Amino acid sequence: MVQRAAPSAPVGLWLSLGQASRLLGITPATLRRWADQGEVATFVTPGGHRRFPRSVIEGMVPHVRSRRPSLAGLGASPERMALAYRRARPVERPGSPRWMAGLSEADRVEFRERGRRLLAILLEHLDAEDTGAAAGHLERAVADATEYGALSRSLGASLTETVELFLRFRGSFVGELAGVARRRRLDTREATALLVAAETAMDRLLVALMRGFEQGGEPA
Questions:
Q1: 93 φ, ψ to 5°?
Q2: DSSP 13
Q3: pLDDT, tens digit, for every residue of 116-173?
Q4: What is the pTM of this model?
């Protein structure tokens, strides 16, 4: 909560909005929002300028880590990611592709299970501690995406519809990762590396999905 009171401490112990945001590696707008929400101590000078306690801001600067916390530890579980996808695009809603309406319950269960498995593998890939393990998880995800493309074609989906569904899956996944990075306040380096790795993996999966569709059988 913003308080309008002059500080009793020396001026050198206080930072301007610009100084504090640069120290944290965030935009002034973000720091202003945190202050308005009561997440950061601040006061406003008689001239209308924000000042932040240097000790508080320096305490918020992330310590250098050898690696970021695991995604599961940050709250990005396969279940949470699947929930984000369902919120973004429920399976049943007006305007859904006609081929989806004709799926049997067994087909729907298979699609859901494949989606959950793919989410779990992607999270394992992003959390892998060495390049060999990361590459292995990604290859598993590529194989699943290839099978997914072939299955979509066999059930009557067009290539356009298959790609559209994947893009919704991709958007919700990357969006949820970005939300986790923001809520958990990963530093800029960690957040950027995470999102770049996720986008790179999704590029591979999209190519695999299309390859699987093209190599699949004729639509039922």
A1: -165, 155
A2: G
A3: 899 999 999 999 988 899 999 999 999 999 999 998 898 888 999 999 989 988 998 9
A4: 0.64
What is the tally of helices (H) and strands (E) in the chain?
Answer: 10, 3
Which two tokens mark 67?
């690696």
Q: Are 212 and 145 in contact (CB under 8 A)?
A: yes
Question: How many angstroms separate the Cα of 148 from the Cα of each of 125, 142, 155, 180?
Answer: 19, 10, 11, 27
Q: How many CB atoms lie within 10 A of CB 200?
A: 11
Token pair 């986008």 is at which residue? 199
Terminal C-alpha separation, the chain: 61
Domains and CATH numbers, the chain: 11-60 (1.10.1660.10), 71-215 (1.10.490)
Secondary structure of 22-46 in the HEC alphabet? HHHCCCHHHHHHHHHCCCCCCEECC
